[in-house]
């Protein structure tokens, strides 16, 4: 399993990257896709994911829409135009950071 | 693909409500997340009861409680700057009242209110930016904007009146009190919403308390507004109302400090704003926001050849800007043939027309019968020697 601190520090970038790929996602879906893509090594809890989503929403990076799905309310998250632009920059910065880490550790 | 039916979803909702998470604004997401987890297990052939039992044990209430707190904390964090600005405004307000630098203090006082207005505007912008998070935020943004408009326009009008003699018919007071009313209403709606979504009992109690505080402020602001049309009936009791509001605000401020609740920016804005607005309409204001009105010592020397046998003479006067508002002031004997009074003037320019009589009613009628009216260019000289015949 990946340490929680590492996940916490990079979760925002994971979510942004997912929302760049999928037009809209709901919370549970995000946890499942990350679980699948990481072969079960990243298991997000409710407490870890939703503060990040709401923070992105407050920053204007993502917008939300609610739908009634299977008799319950589901909240979908998608990138705003500002979010799309800023996520490009942030992802670029994050990749640079990963390269730097690689150089430092290997 | 297993899909929960209505009864099963309702069962989960009820169970989660009993676990006291229903108050969180994350409740609907929590229910959906929970249902999805149960459905995933059911897809693997597990029965609803077993799947629900398993997920219930795995997912703890502290997960949602922790998520709720985290979201609130980062939302509150952005208010730190606003709070600093607010405290700075209050500091300026206090300084301008204490130092009384005749003119300089007035600008400091005005600055304090401009900063208070900026705080209201900043809160309004913040709610507007979050209008998509909750629909009610649009209403809160409008109320805060009205608070900003009322406070700023009111204080500028009061400032112009007290410093430059602009005729405002008391509308500055009305606007500032309306500003306070709208901001109180904002706090009431906001804290009621927070109360509904709070999870922990401590948080519920705190929001309940802040909600009640807002209700009382709405009530006090409404009473203050009601005194405008009823001014002539209630003017003798206004002092007590003002004294009560100021005392109440100070008490709440002390309680907020003692209970370490100063992080509730809206509540602090409400109390400090209410105190500042009511204070400048009280008798304690003297120096705010236009600074202390300039006081003129008007001394009249009566010609020794024509001594006046009374201890008082009366000066009737009006400013050229307010010809329909003459006033009559008694001048007391302060020496041989010398009569004086200390009088305030809010006007710096123009002419002061005046007439002097030994009888107060004669003085009041002076302008209706005088053939020649004396006038002086303001400022009034400190010593005016007048030949009273």
List the helices and strands and how they pair.
The complex is a heterodimer of chains A (106) and B (389).
Chain A: H1 4-21, E1 25-26, H2 27-37, H3 46-58, E2 62-69, E3 72-79, H4 81-105
Antiparallel strand pairs in A: 1-3, 2-3
Helix pairs in contact in A: 1-3, 1-4
Chain B: H1 6-18, H2 27-43, H3 48-58, H4 61-77, H5 80-99, H6 104-129, H7 136-164, H8 171-197, H9 201-226, H10 231-234, H11 238-258, H12 265-279, E1 294-301, E2 312-319, E3 327-335, E4 338-345, E5 351-357, H13 360-364, H14 366-369, E6 374-377, E7 383-385
Parallel strand pairs in B: 1-7
Antiparallel strand pairs in B: 1-4, 2-3, 2-5, 3-4, 5-6
Helix pairs in contact in B: 2-3, 5-6, 5-12, 6-7, 6-12, 7-8, 8-9, 8-12, 11-12
Structural write-up:
- The complex is a heterodimer of chains A (106) and B (389).
- In chain A, helix 1 packs across helix 3 (46-58) and helix 1 (4-21) crosses helix 4.
- Chain A has 106 residues and is α+β, with helices and mostly antiparallel strands.
- Chain A has four helices and three strands, in the order H-E-H-H-E-E-H.
- The two termini of chain A are 21 Å apart.
- Chain B folds into three domains: 6-67; 78-279; 294-385, Immunoglobulin-like, CATH 2.60.40.
- Chain B has 14 helices and seven strands.
- The termini of chain B are far apart.
- The relative contact order of chain B is 0.09.
- Chains A and B meet through helix 2, helix 3, strand 2 and strand 3 of A and helix 2 and helix 4 of B.
CATH superfamily of chain A: Winged helix-like DNA-binding domain superfamily/Winged helix DNA-binding domain
Treating each run of at least 4 consecutive H or I residues as one helix, how many helices of chain B? 14
Distance between the termini of chain B: 110 Å
Rg over CA atoms of chain B: 31 Å
Q: Sheet bearing the most strands of chain A, described? A: 3 strands, antiparallel
Averaged pLDDT of chain A: 86
Regions with little confidence, pLDDT below 50 for 5+ residues of chain A: none
Q: Which two chains touch over the largest interface? A: A-B, 26 and 31 residues
Task: Tell me what the CATH architecture of chain A is.
Answer: Orthogonal Bundle
Q: Assess the beta-strand content of chain A as a share of residues.
A: 15-25%
CATH names the topology of chain A as: Arc Repressor Mutant, subunit A
Distance between the termini of chain A: 21 Å
Unreliably modeled segments of chain B: 287-291, 378-389
Strand order of the largest sheet of chain B: 6-5-2-3-4-1-7
Shape call of chain B: rod-shaped
Please tell me what the overall shape of chain A is. Answer: globular
Q: By helix and strand content of chain A, what is the structural category?
A: alpha+beta
Put simply, the count of helices of chain A is 4
Tell me how many strands of chain B there are: 7
